[in-house]
Amino acid sequence: MQMILPRFHYHAPTSLDEACEILAELKKDARLMAGGTDIIVNMKKGLVSPKNLVSLSRIKSLTDRILDTASGNTRIGACVTAMDLIRFTQGAGRYHALASGGAACLGTPLIRNTATIGGNLVTARPAADLPPSLMAYGAKVVVKNRGGERVVGLEDFIKGPGQTVIQSNEILTEIVLESQPRFSGGGYEKLGVRKTLEISLVNAAAFLALEKPDGPILNARIVLGAVAAVPMRARAAEECLVGEKPNEKLFEKAALAAAKESKPIDDFRGSAEYRKEMVKVLTRRALRTALQEAVNQEQRRKG
Ligand SMILES: Cc1cc2nc3c(=O)[nH]c(=O)nc-3n(C[C@H](O)[C@H](O)[C@H](O)COP(=O)(O)OP(=O)(O)OC[C@H]3O[C@@H](n4cnc5c(N)ncnc54)[C@H](O)[C@@H]3O)c2cc1C
Questions:
Q1: Among candidates 166, 196, 204, 199, which has minimal Cα distance to 280?
Q2: In principle, which of 47, 108, 125, 236 could form an S-S bond with 257, CB 3.0–4.6 Å?
Q3: 1 alpha carbon to ligand 1 midpoint, in Å?
């Protein structure tokens, strides 16, 4: 395996407009780099060898920005690291599934200090840790090029393993999270062979919005990772939940439905049958956490 980086030209724009100009000029000869935890590894392995690497790390609007807007939405710069996400979400007491779940499970402290939210989405690994909880919270992404920008729902953004709708002249600039309604919460569960530094065998994120603390459930989203080519919504499971009062029996029923609709494969990490079993377990746990978070969130609001 090649371990020395191939030669490339390095660009370090300090504004988004400058970065868009560079991409427009260099076209397919350029690749973007945020934290570099994926692309540098792939370059060292000889899997990609761009002539130009355009670093986003000096663009403050991408690296330093987590903004609560007047409408209650949260806008997160694409180059915010996993560690900053954890700090923000814990400090704000919101988006629990994204912080304590997704971002906290990502790699090691060293990786979390470097890996960015945008890089995790564009890499589009079926087992990645951030897409499921972001999808469960209904996230949208903003994509920009020299000519303007477009907003895409995260569910439509990821197309397949390593594939997204982003074009070579575009930059993912922001992730937009809807404001969380009252009595709502999220949960995320990851299973790997080891406890740390491990790719998910299965992961599951859940979001519940209730009419009042004991229900009924007004809205439910369940997203499963590593059991299909892209993180998938478990829609039949969600349908079991909406309109019902939350309880263990209901969560069991939804978890079973999620397992049925998941489409895992056999590989060296685990069999499809085992993964389906684990979808059941993780979905149930994520739903429990989401319910608990809905209650906690209300208590924090009052306190
Ligand atoms: C040791 C190790 C452990 C890991 N563990 C985990 C784990 O547990 N869970 C997990 O999910 N991942 C894990 N990863 C993968 C990796 O850290 C994440 O996918 C990370 O979030 C990628 O972000 P980055 O900023 O480093 O991306 P980069 O490597 O900089 O970029 C990755 C890709 O995204 C593109 N890109 C980056 N930012 C943008 C942007 N704003 N707009 C458009 N394109 C962009 C780049 O061109 C490149 O193609 C691990 C990696 C390593 C090396």
A1: 204
A2: 236
A3: 20
Ligand 1 neighbourhood includes 172 CB (under 6 angstroms): yes
pTM score, whole prediction:
0.95
pLDDT, tens only, 208-242 = 999 998 889 999 999 999 999 999 999 999 999 99
Predicted confidence band at 24 (pLDDT cuts at 50, 70, 90)?
very high
The domain of 170 spans: 62-177
**Residues 188 and 298 occupy one common structural domain:** yes
Distance CA 32, CA 214 (A): 47
Domain count, the chain: 3
Do 117 and 149 fall into the same domain?
Answer: yes
Ligand 1 mutation target, pool 3, 106, 142, 196, most atoms within 8 A of CB? 106
- Asked, for residue 153, whether it belongs to a domain, the answer is yes
Q: What is the CATH number of the domain that holds 221?
A: 3.30.390.50
In a domain, 44, yes or no: yes
Kindly state the DSSP code that residue 198 receives in the 8-state scheme. Answer: -
Phi and psi angles of residue 11, each rounded to the nearest 5 degrees, phi first: -120, 140
Residue type, 166: I
Does residue 106 have its Cβ closer than 6 Å to ligand 1?
yes
